[in-house]
Design brief:
Layout lengths: L3 E5 L2 E5 L2 E5 L3 H13 L3 E5 L19 E2 L3 E5 L7 H10 L6 E6 L4 H9 L3 E4 L4 H14 L5 E2 L8
Parallel strand pairs: 3-4, 3-6, 5-9, 6-7, 7-8
Antiparallel strand pairs: 1-2
Length: 157
């Protein structure tokens, strides 16, 4: 398992960061997956929400203080459900992921309001890699170092 090392308050702590990208466009999905891997994250990629490794079809099985994933970046327009519907579904099932971003090439006012209500960061396609990197840096700064990831074997890849 790869570990991301970052400096925190003068010390180097080793953190497991699990990141998921969901996008039906191969090029974008592969690009973000590579960004995750290059940062040392445990990376997962899916072309649609229902086959995603962290999709919940019942209540979240993560124990208190545990997360199934640290970061999710999803496209808005995908087969079977939108990225916003996916995030809403996950939260309704008790998913505790705190770092969520949604990408779209054409945001409507309604989608922007929906994303804000779900506390999602928004990216406009085409985006710059630096924008993704900056957001990931912000996510890492906000991590609760007492939280733990649920064992990988509970995830379906």
């Amino acid at each position: 398992m790869e570990i991301a090392e970052r400096k925190w308050k003068g010390n180097i702590n080793k953190m497991r960061i699990r990141a998921v990208v969901i996008d039906d466009e191969d090029v974008i999905r592969d690009l973000i997956y590579d960004i995750f891997k290059n940062r040392g994250y445990e990376a997962h990629a899916s072309s649609e929400p229902l086959s995603c490794s962290v999709y919940l079809d019942s209540e979240c099985p993560c124990p208190v203080g545990h997360f199934c994933t640290t970061i999710v970046i999803t496209d808005i327009d995908m087969p079977n459900m939108t990225g916003l519907e996916f995030i809403e579904h996950q939260k309704s099932m008790g998913c505790k992921v705190q770092n969520v971003a949604v990408m779209s090439g054409r945001w409507t006012d309604e989608e922007i309001e929906h994303a804000k209500s779900l506390d999602c960061h928004m990216f406009k396609k085409p985006f710059k890699i630096d924008e993704i990197e900056k957001w990931l840096n912000e996510c890492e700064k906000k991590l609760d170092h007492n939280s733990k990831l649920t064992d990988k074997q509970t995830l379906v890849n």
